[in-house]
UniProtKB/TrEMBL annotation:
Protein name per its UniProtKB record: Magnesium transporter CorA family protein
Main location: membrane
Species whose genome carries this gene: Nocardioides koreensis
UniProt cross-references to Pfam families, sorted A to Z: CorA
Keyword annotations of the record: Cell membrane, Membrane, Transmembrane, Transmembrane helix, Transport
Entry annotated with the keyword Transport: yes
Gene3D superfamilies documented for this protein: CorA soluble domain-like (3.30.460.20), Magnesium transport protein CorA, transmembrane region (1.20.58.340)
Length: 323
């Protein structure tokens, strides 16, 4: 079902009215209308497009989905595509919700392909900033951008927390290479997807703030600048985390190589110690007379040599940190 709202002079006056009433509300010059369509039928979207004079290319982009975050200008209206995101901490998967928006001087039409975009959160964003709606459509668009970018910020914060846990896992006393490798791959995949969503938003917000676009009222300039600052911070943070995950993967490989070297060193040291009694007992097992042959003194001598040489090697290897 379509969700609708009508504001007059910045005050919410009507809600959840039929799509056929959109034109009637827009006859009032002080009114601005918001229409939300979730998984709309083509006929339903074409009906709205006809009422508001929306361009066919923009309608096609909104219905096809999977658009790159962008802001396009058409005659009589603008088109915005963006993504809300959140991180599933259990799986490390980044969940995205696409939204397309048609922006006219008196109407905002949002189109969602499914329920992945949390539209109720957007409504709360608008309701928490009712003092801004007096500035027109630019205020509603700001609320949409602010909500989306805040979601990006929360997602990158969650990724940062998960990467810190990954660092602890990396240096755990018990080797957990498989867990580290699997988690590293999941987080790196999520960071690549987040980067694909976040980086284009710099261009989107920067374009919307241009004076020739005429979307941002003077009173809203500071609010849009604040959103732009958040976009830059998220983009820089995402790039930093991407490099950090790559470093963790390389460190994990280095740790595995070092651990293998330590194991090899210890095995070699024990083999050297074990070789001493083998050599001595082999010597005293010769089938010919030797000093101490067939006497207890020969047994004591061989035993003493084994203890002294093996003990000496053990102490030396411990001192050299080979054991």
């Amino acid at each position: 079902m379509a969700r609708t709202r009508c504001y007059r002079k910045g005050v919410l006056t009507d809600e959840d009215f039929p799509l056929d009433d959109v034109s009637e509300h827009l006859e009032d010059e002080s009114a601005m209308v918001w229409v939300d369509l979730c998984g709309p039928e083509l006929a339903e979207l074409e009906h709205v497009a006809e009422e508001l004079g929306l361009h066919s290319l923009a309608v096609e982009d909104a219905t096809s989905g999977r658009q790159r975050p962008k802001f396009n200008r058409f005659q009589g209206h603008d088109f915005l595509a963006a993504y809300a995101v959140h991180l599933d901490a259990a799986s490390g998967e980044l969940v995205t919700g696409e939204i397309a928006a048609f922006i006219t001087p008196s109407a905002l039409v949002t189109v969602r392909t499914d329920d992945a975009f949390p539209i109720d959160g957007l409504l709360r964003q608008w309701d928490d900033n009712v003092d801004l709606t007096q500035f027109g459509i630019g205020a509603l668009v700001h609320g949409l951008l602010d909500f989306v970018v805040d979601g990006h910020f929360d997602a990158v914060q969650s990724l940062d927390d998960e990467i810190e846990k990954l660092e602890d896992l990396l240096f755990d006393d018990r080797p957990r290479e498989k867990d580290v490798q699997r988690r590293s791959f999941q987080l790196r995949k999520s960071l690549v997807l987040l980067r694909r969503v976040v980086l284009p938003m710099r261009e989107v917000v920067n374009t919307m703030m241009r004076r020739d676009v005429g979307l941002v009222p003077v009173e809203m300039t500071a609010y849009y600048q604040d959103v732009y600052d958040h976009v830059l911070r998220v983009a820089e943070w995402t790039e930093g985390l991407r490099d950090l995950v790559a470093t963790i993967v390389e460190t994990n490989l280095t740790i595995q190589g070092n651990r293998l070297n330590v194991i090899t060193k210890k095995v070699t040291s024990w083999a050297a110690i074990i070789a001493v009694p083998t050599a001595i007992t082999g010597f005293y097992g010769q089938n010919l007379p030797y000093p101490g042959f067939a006497r207890m003194s020969g047994f004591y001598t061989s035993t003493l040599l084994i203890v002294l040489l093996s003990g000496g090697l053990y102490v030396a290897f411990k001192r050299w940190d080979w054991l």
